[in-house]
Amino acid sequence: MPVAPSRAKRALADRHDPEGLAAYVLRYLEWLRVHNYSSCTVENREACLGYFVAWCTERGFGRPQEITKPILERYQRSLYHWRKRNGQPLTFRAQHARLVPVRALFRWLTRQNYLLYNPASELELPRLERRLPKHVLTIAEVEQVMQIPKPDEPRGIRDRAILETLYSTGMRRRELIGLALFDIDRERGTVMIRQGKGKKDRMIPIGERAIAWIDRYQEEVRPDLVVGRDPAHLATLFLTQTGEPFTPNRLTQLVRGYVEAARLGKSRSCHLFRHTMATLMLENGADIRYIQAMLGHAELSTTQIYTQVSIRRLKEIHTATHPGKVRLARSIVPGTGEEPSEPTSAEALLAALDAEAQEEERDEIAE
């Protein structure tokens, strides 16, 4: 069954056997880094493989050659039967996420000729449900959350700027953490996301209200946060009270605190605004492909191949459909002059957002 993250880390730290399973996992993680996989991907696989190594070690399976398909199926069953402290089981998506790195590890071991055959090649992963977001804020609820930070306090100004940025752009929390001062283009009303998920850059619109709060934060609050601090952090846009960049969990706690303070009966934090932005823009007539561009989704399994759109047109769609400045407009498919049909692609987009949110929750546990 799964083990605590600390035990998982200790399992990978055990290097007494250079031919042991833990040693090969460390080689695999190093291979990922050498081949330019993102640090988030490496950290996630390290945590999941740590669980697996600890489980194998407790049962006397110390080397990769000892792992067979029946053993992997036993591990899969243990994930199904395991219960959290609150008595709840792991979701099938969480079980799936734990097994994917294990399957990738054995594929790598086979390709590197450490194993003669791949025992995980025919391992059947749990089927994933297509779920829609549990919680999405209305426009009124968003405004209610926005009123919680105190605008007469430095921290309130900074936090309002963070909330407005999340709401206006729908960016991921790690993307907001990585924002630099020069990533905001006030003249064009855009923000550059650098090295987003999949190490992809993208330029997306940001609303005037969000820019106004960012400007106020930069002028009134941020100078006091960087005085005497590490020069390496001077380019980071949003800083903590100690003048350091936010960690993912710290940002989650900050945003969740304001959502809970608004007493809306809705949970989640940073991803709640990502869900909300996408849903409200869809309701206001934005074509799904523009929202895909905003979110950084290259493609969805139930939609047509993603069509690249210009930032100018994307900015127009954002201005026309984002609740920060709404005016209802016909949603036109680029290059056709026709209104798009309403297939299940909207549901697929929202389901993908829900999957992202669960992945974010798993990252919080791993950290």
Sequence-ordered SSE layout with sheet pairings:
Layout: H1 5-13, H2 21-34, H3 39-58, H4 69-81, H5 92-111, H6 139-146, H7 154-169, H8 173-177, E1 184-185, E2 190-193, E3 202-205, H9 208-220, H10 222-226, H11 248-261, H12 270-283, H13 288-295, H14 311-321, H15 345-366
Antiparallel strand pairs: 1-2, 2-3
Describe the structure.
- The chain is mainly α and 367 residues long.
- The protein folds into two domains: 5-111, Orthogonal Bundle (DNA polymerase, domain 1); 139-366, Intergrase catalytic core (hpI Integrase, Chain A, Orthogonal Bundle), CATH 1.10.443.10.
- It has 15 helices and three strands.
- The chain has helices at 5-13, 21-34, 39-58, 69-81, 92-111, 139-146, 154-169, 173-177, 208-220, 222-226, 248-261, 270-283, 288-295, 311-321, 345-366; strands at residues 184-185, 190-193, 202-205.
- A three-stranded antiparallel beta sheet has the order 1-2-3.
- A hairpin with a 4-residue loop joins strand 1 (184-185) and strand 2.
- Helix 1 packs across helix 3, helix 2 runs antiparallel to helix 3 and helix 7 crosses helix 12.
- The protein is globular, with a radius of gyration of 23 Å.
- The two termini are 19 Å apart.
- Residues 300-309 and 327-344 have low confidence and may be disordered.
Summarize it.
The protein is mostly helical.
Mean pLDDT rating: 81
Provide the number of structural domains.
2
Biggest sheet record? 3 strands, antiparallel
pLDDT < 50 runs, ≥5 residues: 300-309, 327-344
CATH superfamily of the largest domain: Intergrase catalytic core
Secondary-structure element string: HHHHHHHHEEEHHHHHHH
**Order of adjacent strands in the largest pleated sheet:** 1-2-3
State Rg: 23 Å
Please, how many helices? 15
Can you identify the CATH class of the largest domain? Answer: Mainly Alpha
CATH topology of the largest domain: hpI Integrase, Chain A
Strand content: under 5%
Task: Examine the secondary-structure arrangement and name the CATH architecture of the largest domain.
Answer: Orthogonal Bundle
Whole-Å distance between the termini? 19 Å
Shape: globular
